[in-house]
Design goal:
This protein has 284 residues and is of the alpha/beta class. It has eight helices and ten strands. Strands 3-2-1-4-5-10-9-6-7-8 form a ten-stranded mixed beta sheet, sandwiched between helices. Helix 2 links the parallel strand 2 (33-39) and strand 3. Helix 1 crosses helix 2 and helix 7 packs parallel to helix 8. The chain is elongated.
Length: 284
């Protein structure tokens, strides 16, 4: 059953926000939450060979000590992972969600997503992870990999949780943006939210028809959406709309059409996710 909310937590500053957003989605969709912390295959940075060219007698003893240190290190990393999950569970529980499971996984995070996403409604991840360079505004290194691999919507949480009342939908008529509108129409998450569908570009008959089709689809689902065409560059105009009009969330295709083609792999979505202070939901 495609119902579970998968929230990836890593102990970074974004993890608390991921938990609050997961709880918000869970309460609106009546779906359970699964919190996942993924330990890398090596459990951390590449280990250094400290044995060198020590003579055999000393080397045997040293190798035994190093093996013991490795075992202790692996145990500490696992303990830390469980502590991250316990803290995350407490946050979601305090937000009023009762169906919560936790899972500690070893291996690659993308392989984990591939294995578990069949039963997921949405996958939540923080904009940046523990190793992110905040000064340079870098996105989390796993974000693009997850969006490329995932077939479910990816919810990129902002740094701090704020109640969401309005949604901007970036619509260009491409298959991923059409899928995004269809998802909004079908999901109880968006019920009672103010939805505005925006195309960036010059107004044409084709663009107007696409927006009217999107509006009709949403109306059939009980969502009265506004539509708008704005001129300019998507990566600047969409961000300006979010900032000036106070949208609480952005929904957009992970792969675009026309000038919103590049997205996560190029300028528009990368810039939106990097600069927006609100969550961005990416649809493939």
């Amino acid at each position: 059953m495609t119902n579970k909310i998968i929230a990836l937590v890593d102990g970074s500053i974004y993890s608390e926000s991921v938990c609050h957003h997961a709880a918000w989605i869970a309460k609106r969709t009546d779906a359970p939450v699964e919190l996942i912390h993924v330990l890398g295959r090596r459990g951390g940075p590449e280990k250094q060979d400290l044995s060198g060219s020590i003579r055999l007698g000393a080397r045997t003893k040293l190798m035994e000590e190093l093996a013991e240190l490795d075992a202790q290190r692996a145990k500490l990393i696992s303990h830390r992972g469980r502590a991250v999950l316990e803290d995350a569970r407490a946050i979601v529980d305090q937000d009023g969600v009762t169906e919560i499971t936790t899972r500690l996984r070893h291996g690659d995070i993308v392989e984990t997503i591939t294995e578990i996403e069949e039963n997921a409604r949405v996958i939540l991840i923080g904009k940046r992870g523990e190793a992110a360079d905040f000064a340079k505004g870098h996105l989390g290194s796993n974000l693009e990999r997850i969006v490329r691999a995932a077939h479910r919507p990816v919810f990129v949480a902002s740094r701090a949780f704020q109640p969401i009342q309005s949604v901007l939908v970036a619509y260009d008529g491409g298959s991923s943006s059409m899928k995004a509108v269809d998802h909004i129409a079908r999901s109880p998450l968006f019920a009672d939210l103010k939805v505005t569908v925006v195309t960036v570009g010059s107004e044409t008959l084709e663009i107007n028809k696409g927006l009217e089709d999107a509006k009709a689809l949403l109306k059939a689902a009980g969502i009265e959406a506004d539509t708008r065409v704005v001129e300019g560059q998507p990566e600047t105009e969409l961000g300006t709309l979010v900032e000036e009009e106070g949208f609480g969330m952005v929904v957009m295709g992970a792969y675009g059409h026309s000038r919103i083609r590049s997205l996560v792999i190029g300028s528009t979505t990368t810039e939106m996710v990097r600069s927006c202070k609100v969550p961005v939901v990416l649809m493939r």
